[in-house]
Design goal:
Blueprint lengths: L2 H30 L21 H24 L6 H17 L9 H22 L6 H27 L12 H25 L3 E3 L3 E5 H22 L9
Antiparallel strand pairs: 1-2
Helix pairs in contact: 1-2, 2-3, 2-5, 3-4, 3-5, 4-5, 6-7
Length: about 250
Amino acid sequence: MERTLRNRLTFGPIMLAGVLGLLWFDHMAEGWTRGWLGKDEMGRMHPEQGVGGIGLLILLMIILPPATAEVATLFTAEKVRPYRFVAAVGSGALAVHAFATQFYRFKPIAASTLAFIIVFTMLFAALRRAWLRESQEAIHHMAGTVLAMLYLGGLGWFLMALRVKHSPNPEHFHGSTMVIVMILLVVKFTDIGAYFGGRALGRHKLIPWLSPGKTWEGLFCGMFVAGCVAILCTRYANIPFPAWMS
């Protein structure tokens, strides 16, 4: 068995078990905290709604900072020199921001706070450069820091925003733990389907100059497996469909 495949089969289930454990806690914590979101803009309480995303926030705060620092290291190889610590703190702040958007008192300042995080990440990078009394390549450091933060921090923000979203219309989308599980499963099974489908059926190269191992057959197998997993998960994720798809 190839080392790459052996590592995937060994560490993949272990990591998946840890992720699912935190997401289970996420689901349970939402039930324990019902009524904690406060009053909406109309002064109404929503006792049926709890604080969502607690387990997901813990997961993101464990993964995002070191992952962002690693991405910043990769950027350095391309002569883009972000400040890893500043980028890691910024990506974590984005996850916290998305988590806070579910609280009614925070919603009026959510947009300005998001802009504050992005702008001040860039300013902290500039201040870091000024502290060293160096002006060379300051733009590279500032732009690289923001890019490293948004590259993974933006993804974490998007996942958290989906998790905590609650539409006032019961027929519209409502975030849940199962939605996050569905996203993770679809992404993982896309990789699994593409890997095994490509090995078994791969004949035509997809993008030889970028990734010689990828094939069109693997792409279609991955998309097919992902679609099947998504269909199986939708009934449990309670995702509404347009009327023409019903």
